[in-house]
Every structure is written in structure tokens, then in C-alpha cells.
Specification:
Elements lengths: L9 E6 L1 H18 L5 E7 L3 H9 L6 E10 L10 E5 L9 E9 L3 H11 L5 E9 L12 E5 L5 E2 L15 E4 L2
Parallel strand pairs: 2-3, 2-5, 5-6, 6-7
Antiparallel strand pairs: 1-9, 3-4, 8-9
The structure holds inosinic acid and magnesium ion.
Length: about 180
């Protein structure tokens, strides 16, 4: 372990495990109210959104929830988005006429979400919205609506709660800054 109890390379905790849990519970309640009486189809963006989706799904006071996943890749340096987004794994199920909630780990430049919203909107869902755990508003290059947001964070490279740097640190129960 490195500094204090933090793993080597991890500089500082930005969002604690407790704060994440509280915020996910609030978002779950809010989404539950907004989709009351409807079936909700969660679309998780692999791999980073898995942790958030697992917690959010269990916080939803809804009777009928389904889950599917897709995977995206963006070319370029590992810690900076190149702007070219590609679907590397598509959904297993059709989404036409379903209420779809895209679940994403973090909104950075916004390019991934613009691409995803556009792709999925073209398939004729009954409704389409986004839940993102983290947002780095200073990095935004394109405007994109995010209906449910966990936390705004400063322009630092973060890991944990599903987020990685080169595949590592996804298992950390908090969100922390690392050297990029
Ligand atoms: P965007 O297209 O620039 O909004 O990129 C969003 C994607 O970049 C996220 O889904 C993450 O996979 C990745 N990303 C952006 N910022 C970070 C970060 O600070 N840590 C880890 N991954 C990040
Ligand atoms: Mg991602």
C-alpha cells in the first residue's frame, strides 16, 4: 500500500464510499418516482459502469427492471479521449418501445454519450435518458443532456468504483485521483 491506506499510485480520495452510497440511494429514489408504473430497461456501458449499475439497480423501487450491456471504445491515448467512438459490443436485446436508461460511469468530453444517445435514439425507444455517476464539466467538448447525475468532480483523472487506469483500480470502493 502507498500513502496512508491508499494503493500505490492513488493520490487522493475525491468521493468516499459513504458519499457514493448516499447519492446512489437518492438517484434510485428519484428514478423510481420518475418511472413509477413503467418497465425500465437499464443499458450499462462496459466496463466502467458495472459497479454503479449494480448499486443503482438495487436502489430502484420498481417492479420491472431489465438490464443489458454494450461496450464502447475510443481510440487514442489511454487517459484522453481521441474523439473517435466505436461500438465494440452491441446490446443483446431490442430496445424499440422500451423505456431505456443509459448507465454510464463518467462524462468527460461528452463524445461517448452523444454517440450513444444518437445510436440508441435511432432504434425507437419509448424514452431515452442517461444516468452518470460522475461528471467533469470542465472537459466538455460537446453538449449532451444527463438526466441523472451523481457528482461533479474537478478535471483530474480518477479511478475506482468501476473506473480504471489501464485496467487497474476498478475494485476500489471510492473514487480517487491518480497521476494520469
Ligand atoms: P468522453 O467520451 O470523453 O465523455 O469519455 C467518457 C469515457 O472516458 C468514460 O466512459 C470513461 O471510460 C473514460 N474516462 C473519462 N475520464 C476518465 C477518468 O477520469 N478516469 C477513468 N476513465 C475516464
Ligand atoms: Mg466508459
Amino acid at each position: 500500500m502507498g500513502r496512508g491506506d491508499l494503493p500505490v499510485g492513488v493520490e487522493e480520495i475525491l468521493v468516499s464510499q459513504e458519499a457514493l452510497a448516499r447519492r446512489v440511494a437518492e438517484l434510485g429514489a428519484q428514478i423510481g418516482r420518475d418511472y413509477a408504473g413503467r418497465s425500465l430497461h437499464l443499458v450499462g456501458v462496459l466496463k466502467g459502469a458495472v459497479t454503479f449499475l449494480a448499486d443503482l439497480a438495487r436502489a430502484l423501487p420498481l417492479e420491472d427492471v431489465t438490464v443489458d450491456y454494450l461496450a464502447i471504445s475510443s481510440y487514442g491515448r489511454s487517459t484522453d479521449t481521441s474523439g473517435v467512438v466505436r461500438l465494440v459490443k452491441d446490446l443483446d436485446e431490442e430496445i424499440a418501445d422500451r423505456h431505456v436508461l443509459i448507465v454510464e460511469d463518467i462524462v468527460d468530453t461528452g463524445l461517448t454519450l452523444v454517440y450513444l444517445r444518437d445510436q440508441l435514439a435511432g432504434r425507437g425507444p419509448a424514452s431515452l435518458a442517461v444516468a452518470a455517476m460522475l461528471d467533469k464539466p470542465q472537459r466538455r467538448r460537446v453538449d449532451v443532456p444527463v438526466e441523472y447525475l451523481g457528482f461533479e468532480i474537478p478535471d483530474r483523472f480518477v479511478v475506482g468504483y468501476g473506473l480504471d487506469r489501464a485496467g487497474h483500480y476498478r475494485h476500489l470502493p471510492y473514487v480517487a485521483a491518480v497521476r494520469p
